[in-house]
Amino acid sequence: MRPAHLLAGLRVALEGRGHASDYARLLLASLGAELAPQRDDDGDGDGDGDANEHPALGWRRSGLMALTGRAARAPQMCPLPLTSCADGALAALAALGPGLHVEAGSGAALLGVRARIAGLTRQGAVSPGGTCHLLACRDGHIAVNLARPDDWTMVPAWLEADCNGDWDAIAPWVSTMPAAQLIERARLLGLAVALSAPSTPAPWLEVAVPCTPASPRKAVGTASGPLVIDLSSLWAGPLCGQLLRQLGAAVIKIESQARPDGARNGPAAFFDLLNAGKASVQLDLASPAGRAQLARLMDQADIVIEASRPRALRQMGIDAEAWLTARAGRSWVSITGHGRAEPQAGWIGFGDDAGVGAGLSELMYRVTGEQLICGDAIGDPLTGLHAALAAWASWRSGGGHLLALSLASVLRHCASFAQPASDDLLRDRHARWTRVAKSRRALAPARLPFAPVGAARPLGADTAAVFSAWLRRAA
Amino acid sequence: MKTLKAGTRLKSAACDTEVMVIRTRPEPVLLCCGGIEMIAMDGQKAGEPDAAFANGTLVGKRYVDEGDTTELLCTKGGKGSLAIDGTPLAVKEAKALPSSD
């Protein structure tokens, strides 16, 4: 089912000239909102209208420029308005309810925030985080993201070679093998590997299994906001939950005892930014008792956010479709690497490799002649912003939707937005935007859409309180 | 008995199970699924799972032997259960999440 009906009947006035406002209107229109007529812009299609930040300045100011390019060389411009997509997704979300700070560049600021906090920088064909490498294979380039330490134990099986250990040992083996074989074997093994290939457009959202919605809801204040269960980890899902919290939702972050959110081991300021203000519940999801507790909490929830492969949840006895049909008015946000359909449902994806798979590195190669990773896990924050928009639109319209977003499809949607029609135009824009970015001396980052509100709750700090509240409700 | 090699794919002769060898020991082993020795991917099915080895396999799970010397990834689930030299393999816990990606 197309997402077009989610905001049907809603009239939105979204002023502003340039790519960010255009992208916001595109998203809202794709959800079925009726847009109030716009004044004509200056027609050059370059996003340099007075309301939006120029995408080239956005790229630099957000920090993504410093994160793209080879370490010893000048930072690189991406000739796609990706920061405008972030600003636009935020503006579209803010059009649905109060609670978010929106200024030029505040959506884009989210794209660079992790690297700013962690002090990451550009490394050419290696992601700023260091776990994703662009490698030459026999017939092209692939992105390989060995983000989990355990991934390294799979490498000998992936390459059928005794080369466990480091990237230098992997590269020669990969160079002799065709991409199709490397990717097929990586998918079998659950490794995040993507082909660097030209981008093709995709819808940013798929709405599946719609149930009968309850009546549309008005913009909500904190008292009447939805209860969100956030089962996700890392960046995209937690960002979605934090944005919903700013809009008035109460959010319970649930983590498994055996497998807590890995971001707890990263920079605390980043984990706090995404998770402060959420209640923290820890459950033993390996045990039947823990799963029963999870089911009880999910029974109370209006919105679920998860970023697991569908089969992982099925194996735990969690079924999105059944949860949606059990009570009217619910919304389920599914964030995957590559989608919920088979066979993509079984594929792993992280933010950097998904960016390569969506064509960003191939595009950078066309304009610079170099193999480069674009930004820092860029698929994560972009998907988190889009997921929050889908969730809030669904909630406002009365719920009853399985909202499926993937890093791959969101990135392909963004990459195809305002993309020049030819390589000549692309190179011309790259040169112009590089000049625009260099035309300013110092650029302080824009304010984030939400202010950090202190420390995130320690793991499981609210487990007892959440369950006693549940018992009171059930009594 | 077969000497396994990292990266080798095998399928069950008794059910739908398919595995890939993640790591192994140098000695030959008797790797069975459903009580029958596992076969090459183009081999022919040879029966049904033995009731003693019919607890099933789950796609995406990793299975290890008692001494933690051999690890298999289930790439397709089935009705039989995996065993090496007659001893059933155990499910290994899911990978810890990364601190960043």
* Order of strands in the sheet with most strands of chain B: 5-1-2-7-6-10
Strand proportion of chain B, as a percent range, falls in 25-35%
Helix content of chain B: under 10%
Contiguous uncertain segments of 5+ residues of chain B: none
- What's the helix count of chain A? 18
Structure description:
- The complex is a heterodimer of chains A (475) and B (101).
- By secondary structure, chain A is of the alpha/beta class.
- Chain A contains 18 helices and twelve strands.
- Chain A has a seven-stranded mixed sheet, with helices on both faces. A three-stranded antiparallel sheet of chain A has the order 3-4-5, sandwiched between helices. In chain A, strands 1-2 form a two-stranded parallel sheet.
- Chain A starts with 10 loop residues before the first strand and ends with a helix.
- Chain B has 101 residues and is an all-beta fold.
- In chain B, the strands form two sheets. A six-stranded antiparallel sheet of chain B has the order 5-1-2-7-6-10, with no helix packed on it. In chain B, strands 4-3-8-9 form a four-stranded antiparallel sheet, with no helix packed on it.
- The chains are: A alpha/beta (475), B mainly beta (101).
- The interface between A and B is large, with 47 and 24 residues.
Q: Summary?
A:
The complex is a heterodimer of chains A (475) and B (101). Helix content of chain A is 39%, strand content 12%. Chain A has helices at residues 19-30, 55-61, 82-94, 106-118, 155-159, 167-175, 179-189, 236-246, 268-275, 288-300, 310-315, 320-326, 351-357, 360-368, 379-396, 407-415, 423-438, 463-474; strands at 11-12, 34-35, 132-137, 140-145, 192-195, 206-208, 227-230, 250-256, 279-283, 303-306, 331-336, 401-406.
How would the blueprint of this fold be written?
The complex is a heterodimer of chains A (475) and B (101).
Chain A: E1 11-12, H1 19-30, E2 34-35, H2 55-61, H3 82-94, H4 106-118, E3 132-137, E4 140-145, H5 155-159, H6 167-175, H7 179-189, E5 192-195, E6 206-208, E7 227-230, H8 236-246, E8 250-256, H9 268-275, E9 279-283, H10 288-300, E10 303-306, H11 310-315, H12 320-326, E11 331-336, H13 351-357, H14 360-368, H15 379-396, E12 401-406, H16 407-415, H17 423-438, H18 463-474
Parallel strand pairs in A: 1-2, 7-8, 7-10, 8-9, 10-11, 11-12
Antiparallel strand pairs in A: 3-4, 4-5, 6-12
Chain B: E1 9-11, E2 18-23, E3 31-33, E4 36-37, E5 39-40, E6 62-64, E7 71-76, E8 82-84, E9 87-88, E10 90-92
Antiparallel strand pairs in B: 1-2, 1-5, 2-7, 3-4, 3-8, 6-7, 6-10, 8-9
